[in-house]
Amino acid sequence: MLEILIYGAVSSAIYAMLAVGFTLIFGVARILNLAHGAFYALGAYAAYAFTSLLHWPLFIAAPLAVLLVALFGVLMERFLVRPLRYSQLAVLMITLSVSLAVEQGLFITFGSEYRNVPSFVADKISIGGVDIGGQRLLTLIAGVLVLLLLWLFIQRTRLGAAILAVSQDPEAAQYMGIPTNRIFSVVMAISAGTAALAGVLVSPFLTVQPTMGLLPMVKAFAIVIVGGLGSIPGSILAALLLGYSETIVAYLISSSWTELVSLVAVVITLMIKPSGLLGRRAAF
Amino acid sequence: MPLLEVADLSVRYGKALAVEQVSVTVGQGELVGVLGPNGAGKTTLLKAISRAIGSTGTLKFKGETLERLPPYDVVARGICHCPEGRRLFPELSVLKNLQLGAYLRSNKAEIAEDLERVFALFPVLKERQQQQSSTLSGGEQQMVAIGRAMMGRPELLLLDEPSVGIAPRLKGLIFDAIEKIRKDGTAILIVEQDATATLRIADRVYVLEHGRTVREGRAKELAGDEYIRQVYLGV
User: Fold this and answer.
1) What domains appear along chain B, each with residue ranges and CATH number?
2) Do B72 and A178 touch (CB under 8 A)?
3) Is A179 in Cβ contact with B88 (below 8 Å)?
4) For residue A110, is it within any domain?
5) pLDDT band at residue A284, thresholds of 50, 70 and 90?
């Protein structure tokens, strides 16, 4: 039971980090970003390149990886997405293309082999008789901290208030003197950065290979549909639901069945409550 | 030199010409009204001045051109726009909405001073400051919208149909507040369908129809104009 509680919390933290960025950029800029999984993969590969190839210390490699991917996200939004932002279909195609290009780029650069990243925390820690890898525990703590900081940033700062304003009415926000395009860049940086951080944190205990962004992308998409597109609390709630459901299914049935959980959750949500648990409007 | 100078301004939506060669001036501390039926181009004119939409022609504020500026720079120069339909941030509190009006300002003491000024103008907002703005009545929402624009400490306030959808009792309060704002020295360009109230409070008035200026002059003179009396005042 305790095992389910702890491992479910770790999965939920990873999913929440992924989904919050995905829902944030949709909620603020209406960008349905299919390249979100690529940010996660780039974060993991940057961690691999800096630590295993360049032998940089982790405390430099990890933040640098997150910053570089955030910058990549900002450049993608500025030069590829922004000129076409008013066409949802064009945005979908552009972000899908970026996702595939990143995957191909990683394949060409690093090959198709699985890569290993050293753990930030190598020790195992025992909680109530349950052994948990230090890296997983770090991921859980980092996930909770990131979400807490993000919440504080949005609720308590001037820039956070501007993000909320743009998400609710971008035109009215302009009349307040809020530079909406700069806000989109900030939000894209946060979105890409949180996805990259998730990639960096899981890279020591999950598989690092070029297609690693696809499944998390599907999960992030599923979570925001279940939670409600554009709703951060909804995404966190759905991440918890999905993280624990998958862990329970893995323990009670088999880990081969876990990938079905998110798909079933999406179908049920779209049939019963298309706006999601805490969403304002139907996702599609 | 007028505070705002708009000359030969035209705005197109695709192939449709929404505003055609319109010229408007607003002097320091002046209250200027723009009347006209739905679709006359009044809202488009205000949006063009705020640079929320592109336009051709001359747009000058305090002698400096606004033509290439992004909307946030227009606010920084001293023009605040209170848009049609109020456009509050519905999930934010009244206080957060008002504070966002001062987004470009950094002097906290001055912002607090202006907040008290808004509360003095609309006392009900002080009581409701923690309330979510979407739960207010239409009139109260309009008060927040005007107060929010005033939080930018504008030299020129653009007001788009402030009396639409408001109970008659609150309408009077809104127009009284507009007069007070003008008396305190802020110039106002107000777009309205309520011709009686606009002709009462404005110094000068422009009448737009089909995107063109069809009448302009001092409010008192236009109030006696036969065409205005028949079409806009219904007498």
Assistant:
1) 4-231 (3.40.50.300)
2) yes
3) no
4) yes
5) very low
